[in-house]
Amino acid sequence: MQELTHYVNGVHIKGTSNRFGDVLNPATGEVQGKCPLSTTAEVETAIEIAAAAQPAWASVNPQRRSRVMMKFVDLLNRDMQKLAEVLSREHGKTLPDAAGDVQRGLEVVEFCMGAPHHLKGEFTDSAGPGIDMYSMKQPLGVCAGITPFNFPAMIPMWMFAPAIVCGNAFILKPSERNPSVPLMLAELLEEAGLPKGILQVINGDKEAVDAILHNQTVQSVSFVGSTPIAEYIYATGCANGKRVQCFGGAKNHMIIMPDADLDQAADALVGSGYGAAGERCMAISVAVPVGDETADKLIEKLIPRVEALKIGPYTSGDDVDFGPVITAASKANIENLVQTGIDQGASLVVDGRGFKLQGYEDGFFVGAHLFDNVTTDMDIYKKEIFGPVLSTVRAKTYEEAIQMAIDHEYGNGTSIFTRDGDTARDFSNRINIGMVGVNVPIPVPLAYHTFGGWKKSMFGDLNQHGPDAFKFFTRTKTITSRWPSGIKEGGEFSIPVME
Q1: Pick the catalytic residue: 112, 166, 246, 281?
Q2: Three-class secondary structure of residue 176 per DSSP
Q3: Contact residues for 205 (Cβ-Cβ < 8 A; gap 6+)
Q4: What is the CATH number of the domain that holds 373?
Q5: How far apart are alpha carbons 66 and 72 in whole angstroms?
Q6: DSSP secondary structure string, 344-364?
Q7: For residues 176 and 22, is the Cβ–Cβ distance under 8 A?
Q8: Are residues 168 and 86 in the same domain?
Q9: pLDDT digit string (tens) for the chain, length 499 residues
Q10: Distance between CA 472 and CA 467 in Å, rounded?
């Protein structure tokens, strides 16, 4: 069994706490590694090393920092399949999906190559007599990120790539469930030319999180995970004077209008609802067909598609649609919510209960489930299930459908499928949700736009990647400069004003 490490100052080091988390193979249920859970002292040591290394890195000009990102992209492409295989083994997602996890992180790194442009300040010539005024974007210092299990490559890169290219050092606390890929990414960044100590990987649990939140050297914290933990990290980080962005849970609705292409909509629902076993914060988990005729036709098209989904381990080949969920506890929670949906009166039209895969009976596989006649007071509608479960809530009108999404406490992503431009435009303008798709099922913006939800899906003022990332990881300093042509006698004691 492999004993994993922390990565500090360019070296893999063993943990000292004698506390470990199990790293499982979700397909078999077997423990394949032990992840060290750090002490507060270990976190503080890593932060001290980062703080010592950061000033020299910040003094490197943005163009040279960007070249490190260029080389990092080359290395990510070189090791893409290796990273995907390790990711699949610890997470359970299929190999193509794991490669996509790496690729979407890589695209943010590509965007960060443009740091010389994004870090430019502003200049005003002759703001007053002989006075020039200009602003500079400067790094914060030491930043930290706390990342979830479901995207162990993409989300760490969404955080550390812009932070580092802005001249910061970064402390990464990845999920203890699948820490190997984050450790590999740190190695690749140093191979690309990043100085030692600029990216540190500290594995741990709540003790490590609290050590980050209460350390006064850490200037910012980024987080992705569940809403209760997002609220805790946001409140604690802000109380300790940090800049904080936290991304929480989701319950993403897709509205299907009567004029929609129902085959296209059904394919989109299956891909977005069941991909990665539903363990995505941007998964579509609620289908809202408008009108009973639309709903009946949609269910008719969904049933054979859902029943035909192939479930298996990543080793079964690229034609597997999705794999296991991350832990036995996750599986039990999904199954309990499914039973709750039945008990509360929803119609389970595709029943994935009792799914077993021959040879993998101890794995954390969950069958695909499809509910119809779900109502907004049911737990399966209100709660994030994070599994291969799609709920259909029938709406009589477009107004009723849009109000469902507006009223839900989560506001991460949403979609509408329609052929009518006026309806799509109205939906896009009125909906109180951060990311919107029009005939697009998973509206995750590309790297040069920003990613972030509204309502209880996001806490903070600035989103991930895109222009917001360069704002989040820098401070603006404004300089007013005067070079007088002569010496003016006497002091001025009143505030200067424009004449």
Answers
A1: 281
A2: coil
A3: 19, 21, 37, 176
A4: 3.40.309.10
A5: 10
A6: TT-EEEE--TT---TT-TTS-
A7: no
A8: yes
A9: 899 999 999 999 999 999 999 999 999 999 999 999 999 999 999 999 999 999 999 999 999 999 999 999 999 999 999 999 999 999 999 999 999 999 999 999 999 999 999 999 999 998 888 899 999 999 999 999 999 999 999 999 999 999 999 999 999 999 999 999 999 999 999 999 999 999 999 999 999 999 999 999 999 999 999 999 999 999 999 999 999 999 999 999 999 999 999 999 999 999 999 999 999 999 999 999 999 999 999 999 999 999 999 999 999 988 899 999 999 999 999 999 999 999 999 999 999 999 999 999 999 999 999 999 999 999 999 999 999 999 999 999 999 999 999 999 999 999 999 999 999 999 999 999 999 999 999 889 999 999 999 999 999 999 999 999 999 999 999 999 998 766 566 667 777 776 5
A10: 9
For residue 41, the domain's CATH number is: 3.40.605.10
Q: Is 281 a catalytic residue?
A: yes
Token duo for residue 376: 């907004």
What single letter denotes the amino acid at residue 366?
V
241 with 260, same domain? no
Q: For residue 429, is it within any domain?
A: yes
Alpha-helical regions (H) of 29-127: 40-58, 62-78, 80-91, 95-112, 115-118
Token pair listed for 129: 């007599």
Residue 445 forms part of a structural domain: no
